[in-house]
Write a structure and sequence with these properties.
Elements lengths: L2 E8 L2 H32 L5 H6 L1 H7 L9 H23 L17 E5 L5 E4 L6 E6 L3 E6 L7 E10 L2 E9 L12 E6 L3 E5 L4 E3 L3 H4 L1 H12 L6 H35 L2 E5 L3 H4 L6 E2 L5 E2 L3 H14 L1 H15 L2 E5 L24 E3 L6 E3 H22 L1
Parallel strand pairs: 8-11, 11-14
Antiparallel strand pairs: 1-5, 1-7, 2-6, 3-4, 4-5, 6-7, 8-9, 9-10, 12-13, 15-16
Length: 397
């Protein structure tokens, strides 16, 4: 398996300044390569590819020895590959008839990751067994201390440095990571994702939705107001912007920590986990406007929909399902995704499906047989049954 390991960096003040400069130079390289492609196509109809731009790196580095020339050529090639992947994704979306999203220039603060191939081409992982403090070597920066809180497994293929607010992280992408299969439990579970509860299982258990963004809303609003009052380009504005970034970064870390703990508990207790195949991007779209035919618009519940969208995104369904997927794979568990349509309106006892069955957010009462249950538990049972039916069909085939 391919797995990533993320550790906190502890650079000195000088190393932190060099890391920031390294990011800035790679951002400028990315933007220059993007401008090269745009001009070549618009002026001469020439399509510039990765191989063309990679071949020019030698001349660029020689012409700017104190800038681009001081960093690893391998990391610069990875930055050019990043641009090439952006164009490949753009053309794929155009071909599929989706919203194209042409590659954009990276503004200051919008380019926060650099990647090196781990083949002694500018970056080396100097891990020392049985020690929590280790180092990573980066060309032009030196040996940077790393807080290694867990063992790195597999073969390190790439080394990435990422800036999150005022913190720096190293991310090791490793291949050939062995699985840690857990003993069988013989149990299966269906899970229903929600806003009132993050997860509700078919066994009736609930995992609380911590609403980390909502808890930090007041502090974020205050920090944002302070930021808007600062003059652009001033040191005070940079400090205020760093404060806002730090608050958002803390919310992300809290949400990630909760998702890891909830997913691990499920993986330890169940052999088969069935979840809804949620289209989160579609579910969190803005409410469509409703023209009234006279140049105006009818009420469309946009404010309520925006609040619901914010709550769904704060719950972090996508983060949780991503973490659950890789933990299940690593532990040898089976994960099944089912269509969520009508699972919350269908009676788990008699199968009657009607909108009227869901009488409240948490209350379910079947209008045919009178079955009463917690609405999310009822939905989780339906999800489990749908998943087990899919498994039977797959095994029969």
């Amino acid at each position: 398996m391919r797995r990533s390991f993320k550790f906190l960096l502890r650079p000195t003040s000088k190393q932190a300044a060099m890391l920031a400069q390294c990011l800035e130079d790679h951002r400028q390289l990315y933007n220059a390569a993007l401008e090269h492609r745009r001009i070549a196509y618009s002026k001469a109809g020439i399509t510039v590819l990765y191989g063309d731009q990679s071949g020019e790196l030698k001349e660029i580095r020689a012409a700017d020895p104190d800038g681009q020339g001081r960093w690893s050529a391998g990391s610069q090639q990875q930055t050019l590959r990043r641009l090439d992947k952006a164009f490949a994704a753009f053309f794929r979306r155009v071909k599929a008839g989706q919203k194209a999203g042409y590659p954009r220039f990276k503004g200051n603060g919008r380019f926060n990751t650099i990647e090196w191939p781990a083949r002694k081409n500018g970056a080396t992982w100097d891990s020392v067994p049985h020690e929590t403090q280790t180092r990573v070597y980066l060309l032009g920066i030196g040996h940077v201390r790393v807080h290694q809180h867990r063992t790195v497994r597999g073969k390190v293929k790439t080394i990435s440095i990422k800036r999150e607010a005022s913190r720096w992280y190293v991310i090791l992408s490793c291949a050939d990571v062995a699985t840690d299969s857990l003993p069988d439990t013989g149990a299966a579970v269906g899970i229903d994702m929600g806003v009132a509860w993050l997860v509700t299982t078919s066994d009736g258990a609930h995992v609380a939705n911590q609403r980390h963004l909502g808890a930090a809303a007041d502090r974020l609003a205050t920090a944002q107001r302070v930021l808007t009052r600062k003059r652009r380009g001033s040191n005070r504005r940079r400090v205020a912007a760093a404060r806002v970034s730090a608050l958002h970064a803390k919310v992300r870390r809290q949400r990630l920590d909760g998702a890891h703990k909830a997913a691990l508990a499920l993986v330890r207790d169940y052999d088969v986990i069935v979840h809804e195949d949620l289209q989160i991007a579609n579910m969190t779209k803005r409410a469509a406007p409703k023209p009234d035919g006279s140049g105006g618009y009818l009420p469309n519940g946009g404010s309520a929909k925006s609040g619901l969208n914010r709550s769904m995104l704060d719950a972090g369904w996508g983060v949780f399902l991503t973490i659950l997927a890789y933990k299940a794979e690593s532990a040898g568990r089976e994960l099944v995704a089912v269509n969520p349509a009508e699972t919350s309106r269908t009676c788990a006892r008699c199968g009657h499906c009607a909108k009227e069955n869901r009488i409240a957010q948490a209350e379910f009462r079947c209008q045919r047989c009178g079955h009463e249950a917690h609405a999310d538990v009822n939905a989780a049972i339906n999800i489990l049954r749908a998943g087990l039916a899919l498994r039977e069909v797959a095994e029969a085939a």
